[in-house]
Amino acid sequence: MIIEQPSKWLRWLYPSAIWRMNPEEKAVYLTFDDGPIPEATPWIVDTLEQYGVKATFFMVGDNVRKYPELLELIKSKGHRLGNHTYNHIGGFKWTSRDYLWNANKADKLIHTNLFRPPHGWMRTEQYIRLRRYYTIIMWDVVTRDYSCHLTADDVFENIKQYTRNGSIITFHDSLKSIDKLKTALPRSIEWLKEQGYEFKIFDENQQRSRHLK
């Protein structure tokens, strides 16, 4: 992902996916990709709790296997869970059969109806089959907190520049991001609150995920 806000043509590739929530509602949806890991997740969860904010964590199944206590921590604080495949694999590099198997393997640990493809890409066949079982959540703002070329101030500026009503904001629950998040996440939450944004998580009143065939 190299753009902070996806262009219309990218959204057209996956028309049934959710890129942005209600543009008439002054609310944002914070999401965190790639965890859980002990070096980042507890701090993120604690920070969200300090500000009374709920978020959605798109988790890698193998990380959940290694750190089940962090899955339970996230659940205990009322956050939403999302599937980010078992091994954080890119759809274009894998056959549809193997990609779907990998997503299903993660779902056996995470148990969610939300899915986000790593890197934001997947083959058309993968997309068509996954949407039968999941609500596919993309993003409206990528903070690029993972980039070695950006500072914490840059991450915060991306929030200020690109956030709008209904934005789905993507941070990363990872080693690449955590040092910047320790500055950028509190500043971002405080700024969003000052602007009058409400923090929401995705509606749970959706079809439950089932294991893919």
CATH 2nd-level architecture = Alpha-Beta Barrel
CATH superfamily: Glycoside hydrolase/deacetylase
> What is the CATH topology classification name?
TIM Barrel
CATH class descriptor: Alpha Beta
Gap from first CA to last CA: 29 Å
Average pLDDT reading:
92
Low-confidence stretches: 206-213
Compressed to H and E, one letter per element, the order equals HEHEHHEHEHEEHEHE
What would you call the structural class? alpha/beta
Residue fraction in strands: 5-15%
Shape: globular
> Total domains, how many?
1
Major sheet: size, sense and barrel closure? 6 strands, parallel
Overall number of strands: 8
Could you explain how this protein is built, in words?
The protein has 213 residues and is of the alpha/beta class. The chain has a single domain, classed as Glycoside hydrolase/deacetylase (TIM Barrel). 39% of the residues lie in helices and 13% in strands. It contains eight helices and eight strands; from the N terminus they run αβαβααβαβαββαβαβ. Strands 1, 2, 3, 6, 7 and 8 form a six-stranded parallel beta sheet that branches. The chain has a two-stranded parallel sheet with strand order 4-5. Helix 7 (152-162) links the parallel strand 6 and strand 7 (168-172). Helix 7 (152-162) crosses helix 8 (175-194). The longest helix has 20 residues, at 175-194. The radius of gyration is 16 Å and the shape is globular. Residues 206-213 have low confidence and may be disordered.
